[in-house]
Each structure stands twice: as C-alpha cells, then as structure tokens.
Give the backbone structure.
Amino acid sequence: MINGFFISEQYFGWKSIFVYLLPALAIMLFYAPFRDKDLIFDIFCKGCEFGAVVSIIYIVINELPTILAGSARIGWSASGNVNTVAMNLSVFALVIYYEILFEQKKKLWPLFVICALFILLTGSKKGLMGIALAIILLSIFKYKWRAYKYVLPILLIGIILYILKNSPYFYSIIGRRINAFIVSLETNQTNGSTGERIGMVEIGWQLFKQSPIFGNGYGYFANNTIYGTYSHSNYIEMLVSFGLLGTGLYYSLFVQLIIRGVKKVAEDYHIILFICLIFMQISFDFASVNFYNNAMMYVVLFFASKIVFS
C-alpha cells in the first residue's frame, strides 16, 4: 500500500521495481483460491496502517529540516509530487478512520491525527478535501439521520479549519492557498494555479470535441497545447485521449463496484469502506490525473473487487 509514494519517472531503480510489483501482488490476491473476505479485508487494512507509518517515517527522514522550518510544502521526497502524497495519505486516513468508527479501534486515533497533520503539511487542497471526505462520508454511513451523533465529525472539521486559519505554521503552508483559491472563485480571477487549471479544462473540452467517440490518442493534450503537460483532470485527460468510449470503459468498474456494493452493503458492512474510497477517488479525479501513474488506486480497486464481487 505504499506504492503511490515511490513512483518516479526520473529513473528505473529499486524503487520502481518495488512499486510496479505491488499491483502484481494485488492481482495474485484477486485470483487466489481462498474466499475468506474477512482475512482479505484485514490484509487491506493492515497494509494501509503499515503504509501510513512507513510513508510518514520516510518523509520525516528525508525532509525533517523543511518540516521544522515550516512555510514550505513537504512530500517531494516521497513521490516527486506533493499532491500524490496527500491523496495517498488521504486513502490511508480514510481506512484508519473507518477502523476507528466501525471497528472501535480507538488505539488508531494517534495515527489518524498524525496522518491528517502530514496531509496538511503537503499544502495540498486535494489532501484537505480528502480528509473532509473521509470524515463526512464515513459519518453519514455510520450515523445516518441521528443528528446528535455528528458532534464528533463537526468538531474534527472545525479543529482543522481553526488550525488552518489561526496557526501561522499551517497558514503559511496551506491556509493561504485555501484563501487564494476562495478569492479566485469569488472574483473570477484567472491567474494562479486555479486559473491555469480552469484554462486547461476549457482547452481540453475543445480538444475532446474534435474526436468525441474514440479520442485523439494518449498524451494528446500535453503534445498539442501551450501547457506541455497533462490536463490536471482525469476526466478531461481521458476524454481528450480516449473519447467517450475509453472513458466509459475505464469508469465502468467504478460504477459496477458502487452499484453492486450498495446492494450488498447490508450483508457485509466492510463494503462501506470501499464505496467511500471509490467516491474519494472519483472526487480526486476532477483535479488530478491518476489513470496512468497511480498504482495505489488500482490496488484499492482490486481489493474492492475481491470483496464486492465475491
């Protein structure tokens, strides 16, 4: 479960070999003859706990001076992209929060808090969204219409927002980025990262309309726009590259897992975790490209398929 943190396109070394073997292990597990879903689920959860611990330790070892100094985003040492680190830590955080909420594993609270803090230290807006989704989605499944039960999740989100606004340390890393994002939406500004991504979506949509059914081919956006890189949206990237046909095929598994999962959740509440993880990934895909370089997502999908389709 720590694969997403060590993907690197700079070289093909031991990290790359380690990373790209992990999905193969998930495939082996998927086709394994045993059908003990509880064991499979436990393997997945333990893997996420281990992944969270190892990833955080790795970042601390490599970026301790930056962490102590503050004002700079962390996570570059882990994958080269702090947003990837934040999204993967969000996956770990969601799994850990599920265990706390549904499995009553209170001893995992410290790990969840540390995981959340490191997500904030990445300065990633997507990471912040991931924490919020983890708390909100799992709370809805757990508490449903019992309004008084929402005191804890509301308190958690309130504490996070308070820290972002009132802590100079965290404000310099992520708080100011959130403020800039809100201002850009309120004033329709087109400068900064938000404006650039809006521009990417607009251009991508025009490219998609050139070949809406089959797409223009892999990497078309990067090779035919002024940006020279991917579109920062999985939906736009896939629509431009593979059209409606390829995009529909890709997301068909997500849809199948959600539909089948909702139908079977009454007989196996573990499925709740995977429904939430899939919703989280669908949300991330609006502002990140994951289909070709996020190995962790495929590991999650394999485990989800093993549980839901069993």
